[in-house]
Specification:
81 residues; alpha+beta; two-stranded antiparallel ribbon; 3 helices; 46% helix; 15% strand; SpoVT-AbrB_sf
Amino acid sequence: MSGTYTVTMGDRGRLVVPAELRERAGLSIGTPLILVESETGLVIMTRDQARAHLRRQLEGADLVSDLLDERRRAAIAEDAA
């Protein structure tokens, strides 16, 4: 499941995904893709892949506690002003 493919930007910004890769990734006509710009380059993902990637990044994070702590600090700063 690894591979590097060379593609060329075509007319109107179109890219052709090689058939072997489309089959392995389960891509078909009309499959929505997400193009992510990162510091290291561009990443193309399906919605399911993007969702799984985001879940892995947020795994173990306690966003509710972080938000509450942030709000408490803001309230303390506001009261002190």
